[in-house]
Here is the input.
Amino acid sequence: GTQARAVDTVIIGSGPGGYVAAIRAAELGQSVTIVERGNIGGVCLNVGCIPSKALISAGHALHAATHDSPFGLTITGAKLDWEKTQAWKQNTVVNTLTGGVEMLLKKHNVEIIRGEARFNDNQTVNVITSDTSELLEFKHAIIATGSHPIEIPGFKFEGRVVDSTGVLSLPEIPEHLIVIGGGVIGTELAGAYANLGSRITIIEGLPKILNGFDDEMVKVIVSDFKEKGAEIVTSAKAKSVTQDENAVTVTYEAAGEEQTVRGDYVLVSVGRHPNTNNLGLNATDIKLTDRGLIETDNQQQTSVPNIYAIGDVVAGPALAHKASYEGKVTAAAIAGQDVINCAVAIPAVAYTEPELATVGETPDSVKAKGLNAKISKFPFAANGRAITMQSTEGFIRIITDKTSHIVIGGQIVGPGASDLISQLSLAMENGLTSEDISLTIHPHPSLGEAIMDTAELADGLPIHI
Ligand code: FAD
Here is the structure.
């Protein structure tokens, strides 16, 4: 019909940006409508963060069971039923979480419309479902449409050439998986399949994989891959691919020479592009950046005052927790609260082996900015809990301001890095000093104790090193 239905706050997309914004907006008294063309939960819950970590867990379990452990444990005949792994990943892991989100949205009386949203102008959005279309006139709109994998010329996603979604649901564990693009997503999935028994070849354009992490951190991951027989080709350019029923052959250029590698699947993970096409943005006064991202101010407001944008469609790291934070800021801004996006710390994690985590300043950024900083580094090899876990690889780094002793950054390579980094984020967000950390009693023995040890090192009063 042409008659517009009046709604309060409409949110396009139900990923970690959109669903969190919806719940918070409802909590703050708004009547909320979510429009979702795919599955509730977005990329993260359905084909991103969550299923990838599920496969990583399965890989850990298989690797541990098929390799002699130092505990005196030998397991014979351990094998994985891939169909069951896939069913567990989908039915137990993904569906539990997406079902949970749907329940939370219902609990908060959020209206969910399954359909494709397209702006008509600055006030209305058209929602197209399989057989109908409805015009919604909104007071406020939040664009949380996320991003999709970039396809490179000559590597059309079909058959054995897969994107990050396809690689999560392969019909079998590949004997040889080729990965083009050694960023976080490519490297994590390569690591999962390495543990599941695949031979791995990573082809990366830059001089190193995991470019967002410094060389001292990445070195640890590269050596783990090497130990597992993986090949990592850097400064390489993937040129073309051919495939038949059973295999793919990738041609790439490295060190000035053309090479080929044959495997059974190739994952192309070279980056993601914001979902700003087909959204009808041309019909609005919303401005995009050169990279196709939606321009926003520090309240996530676009150039149209009643339309906001969050998550992968705006600038900043394409991370779920960053999308959710922006969702909460936006819901509060629409509710008229005096709030801005003032995140000091956005942690980033690679779920590799071992895990990498970073927040705030790094040794490289300290040097580049000429900061008066102290870098303190403590190895997991000196941590009791890590020794009992036979997980002594890696270290914790805390970066403090030399004068105030305030924590301005930190990196963790090692067991539990994804959990431990929150302690440093909390310190940064609250302006805590190394003494604030070192004077806090940490349980013994625990991995977190190594953060206290690193802080003691920053104080100049180390006990365990
Ligand atoms: P999305 O999650 O992309 O959700 C957008 C939603 O909008 C989708 O459901 C889509 O269907 C819907 N939509 C789009 N256009 C329309 C339209 N016109 N009408 C209606 N609906 C529409 N991040 C982390 O922080 N940690 C991780 O461990 C991690 N692992 C990842 C692993 C993989 C394999 C991938 C691919 C990504 C991973 N990410 C991770 C990134 C993370 O998934 C994204 O940063 C996050 O999902 C972005 O959230 P979002 O809400 O902006 O958008």
User: Anything to note?
Assistant: The chain has a mean pLDDT of 97. DSSP finds 13 helices and 22 strands in the chain.
